Amino acid sequence: MTVNYNEQLSALVDGELRGEQLEHVLDLLKTDVQAQQQLQRYQHTSDVLNGFTAKLHPTNLSARLALALEDEPSYAVRSESKAKVLPFPSQLWKQVSGLAIAASVGALAVVGVMSQPENQLVSAPVQTAAYEVVNDVHPQLASGNRWTVSEPEVEERLNTYLVDHNEYAGASGVFSYARVVSYDAGQ
Amino acid sequence: MQKARHIIFSLCLLIIPFSVHADENAMQLLQSMGTAAKNLNYDGVFAYQSGNKLQSIRIIHRADERDEIERVLSLNGAAREVIRTNDLVTCIYPEGKRIHVNRRPLGRGFPSDLLSRLSSATDYYKVTLGVESRVADRLAQELSITPIDNYRYGYRLWVDKASHLLLKSELLRDNKDVLETFAFSSVTINADITDEMLRPQITGHEMTWNRSDSQSPNQNTAIRGLSVWKLDWLPEGFVLVAQQSRLKANTGNAVEQRVYSDGLSSVSVFIEQIHAAHNHLKGGSNMGAINAFGTILHSHFVTVVGEVPAHTVEKIGHGIRHGNEGQQ
User: I want to staple B184 with a disulfide (CB 3.0 to 4.6 A). Which of A167, B88, B122, B136 is the partner?
Assistant: First the structure.
């Protein structure tokens, strides 16, 4: 099972899969025990974060899914209704659909830096530079995995700083680089 | 009356040592948590939730007598990875076809070395033990970390009872609003981690490689004495814990980073030379619980970044000044 499959399984939990992709993942889940286990882990993750663990009875989702699949005669016809075979509580679907992660192509362009001789470390007189200060905070983006700025150049610089700062993250040390790998490149 | 005083005094004797003992246990557990994260082998999937965003991430960590290696990869969206070895941080961004290799500034173990400074944090946080519960099918001990003021965030941590690995973390604003959650959904501790598991899935062909080197500790010491930038204000308990300077590969701009910490929370101050026309942040921005404040001073981009509230980075940012200010 590859990372691509992991991505598709995660998308399945998020309710993002349709058509051929959905059929492909359902086929995989019929036979692949590892995929079934992984699906359970993703489902559990979603449950934990949405606070459903206390409300729901323990559910072997992949086993229920496999049972449901056995009753399905054919998946040759593409249909939106296939998602209905998944025995998620309707409330859960409503919740996770709002948490879909954009699998987007974009620019998380973190620029590199190179070594610098010591004699250049002291701030030397700097040429007068033309520059522009931007105050482009987007209040509507005040939460999530993306800097609340619109200028790509500023965002790129902040991302560079984020990587460098993460080395010093305190209590969340184990998890701190999650912010870097989950940066929402889509907007 | 005298009898009542005796009773009260006796009760105090009973209560005070108990509460101190509880705090000591909490601090010991917190310190063990830092050690466990560095020394254990583990392979797990955790969720990261910030705002309305949810991400599944796999972490694989291996430590032995010689090396410490960690691979963190996104399981949703673009397959980004971060691989940390003893002294290098490699960030792979497949969507931008970029690989960023950065020498770790202090070249020591990870996760964060800050937890080794926890003893200095005790004056600024109340650390207490909570109840036991289950996280990722493991028995966990809850730790509550409450700051003394509103210049820093609080935490609720769930630490594995058996191994002391951090299993779940919530970052709290005003001790109630959860800004970020990290939570393992499954984890194998003392896992057998092969070299193959730590290898990136992307070969690096057709990728742009950027490499960096920070200065040596000796050089950093030299910088510390020479830096002309001053900070007028820091939250109580924050002290300088690291400093480095580099040149950006694409611009040649010199960037100085100073890290200030109270032993648990930290902020970085980045001071970057400007050589050409560029835009910069003026005011605040945030990414999840990370806040940034930017301004321009003496032809330098000055940016404060940290896991602290917005008003903290803003107040620090307003207090930064060039050493020559007031002499001109």
Answer: B136
**With a cut of 0.85, is the ipTM above it?**
no
pLDDT at A32 over 50: yes
Residue B177: is it exposed, middle or buried by C-beta count within 10 angstroms (0-12/13-18/19+)?
Answer: exposed
Question: Which residue in the set B72, B210, B266 is minimally distant from A181, CB to CB?
Answer: B72
Cα separation, B102 vs B87, in Å, equals: 9
Task: With cut-offs at 50, 70 and 90, classify the pLDDT of residue A119.
Answer: very low
Tokens 């410490």, residue located = B68
B250/A112 touch (CB, cutoff 8 Å), yes or no: yes
Q: Which residues of B touch A112 (CB under 8 A)?
A: 100-102, 209-212, 248-250
- CA–CA gap between residue B156 and residue A171 (Å, rounded): 10
Give the pLDDT score at A116.
34
CB contacts under 8 A, B 231-260 vs A, are 241-242, 245-251, 254-257, 259
Q: In chain A, which residue's Cα lies nearest the Cα of B200?
A: A3
Q: List, for chain B, all residue ranges whose pLDDT scores fall below the cut of 70.
A: 1-22, 96-97, 103-121, 203-226, 248-252, 277, 324-328
Q: Which of A109, A136, A184 sits opposite B98 (nearest CB)?
A: A109
For A10: left if phi > 0, alpha if psi spans -120 to 50, otherwise beta; the answer is: alpha
